[in-house]
Structure formats: C-alpha cells, structure tokens
UniProtKB/TrEMBL annotation:
This is DUF975 family protein. The chain crosses the membrane at residues 21-48, 60-87, 108-136, 175-199. PANTHER family: MEMBRANE PROTEIN, MEMBRANE PROTEIN-RELATED. It comes from Candidatus Eisenbergiella merdigallinarum. It comes from the Bacteria. The keyword Transmembrane applies. Coiled coil: none annotated. InterPro entries: DUF975 (IPR010380). Pfam families: DUF975. Keywords: Membrane, Transmembrane, Transmembrane helix.
Amino acid sequence: MNRALLKQDAKDAMRAATPHPALTTLAYLAISIAFSMVICAVSIIFGITGALLGSETVGVFSAFISMILAVVLTLLAATIQFGYYVYCLKVFKHEETGVGELFGYFSLFLKIFGLSLWIALFVWLWSLLCFIPGIIAGLRYSQAFFILAENPEKGIRECVNESKLLMSGRLWEFFVLQLSFIPWLILTAITCGIAGLYVTPYTTVTFAGYYLSLKPPTDSQPGYNSYEGNEQGGYRQ
C-alpha cells in the first residue's frame, strides 16, 4: 500500500474542507473532555454524599444514580464520536459537512452503543488469551464504524462481519499504517495535546480513506483507488 499517497490525499481533503477540520476537532474534543469531567464529578459527588450521610441505603442509591448518569453520558459521548467518524469520512470524500455532523446521529445511539460494546467485549475476550489475539481482533473489527456510517440501516453483526471480510489479508497493512502515526502521537504528547487539533483529524481522515480504498467499486459508487502502486490516489471517477 502506498501510505504516503493515502496520507497526502487525506491532507488535501483537509485543506479543501470548510471549516477546517481543526475547528470541528476542537468542538469534538471539548465535548468529549466535558463529558469525561461530568462523569468523574458525578461519581465523586454521589460518593461523598453517601459517605457523609453514613447510610448504607443512601450509599447504594447514590451509586445507582451515579451509574445511570455515567451510562447516559457515555452513550451521548459514543454518539458524538460516531458523528466525528462520519464527519471525517465526508471530509475525505470532499462532501459538504461541518460541526453539526457531530450531533446528527442520536437516533442511532443504541446501535452505536451496541456496536461499541460488541467490539469491546470480543477484543477483551481475545485479549484474555494473549495481547496479540486482542490486537488482531481490534484490527479485524476496525472498519465496523465506517461501515455503519455509510449504511446506518445495517445491523451490528452485519457491520462486524463486513469489517472482517474487508480486513481479510489486510491486518498487517493496516497495523503498519497505524504505527506510522506514532511520531504524530508523540508530538501531541509533547505539546500537551495542542497538536491533537491537527493530528486527530489527520489520522481519522486517513483511516476513512483507507476504509474507502478497501471497498469494491459499484455502479452507484465509483470507489477509491486502493493505493497499491498507483501514481494517483483519491476519488476514482
């Protein structure tokens, strides 16, 4: 796979996007951080309340309410994250999109949560054997959210199975693509997360382009180049 060409197409798509993906990413990261802070704050507040009142019943009730709020906020955060995947997919395809994309998929929140839970569960189960099978499982399921983004009518299992089919014989290729972003992740850490405003959309848009390159072209969707020895990437007219 021509990783350099794929990444260049992602950069070109980001430059062409309006507003720039860094602004949408700023909103996405701010919302994600806010949800995390609220979940932590709720847990702490209810935990302190139960301890101060000294009642076992109150403590159990506080823990239950805290758990419910945490689950609700986690569902919302997962839906926002899914919206970000859709946004990056549209950026690579040079389609019109924006910050509003983050908030357009609450009708799918149960399916999104179910898919997240399915993937997390099976990756965890494979990881019990050894961390390598867990990594392999994560790679096999890596395209499921992009599949759901393009086909919201598909079921959870259908998205997972299609992801496994697309990734057949491609696991090492995608793993190396992920590893190629390690210097960018180090830069993000060095800059205390500031570089993440560019690195986050850069990696996700690139992964969206990789997903599109795996899809066979159809009459309704011309498809994208596979980046295997091609001199030109991007949309294949």
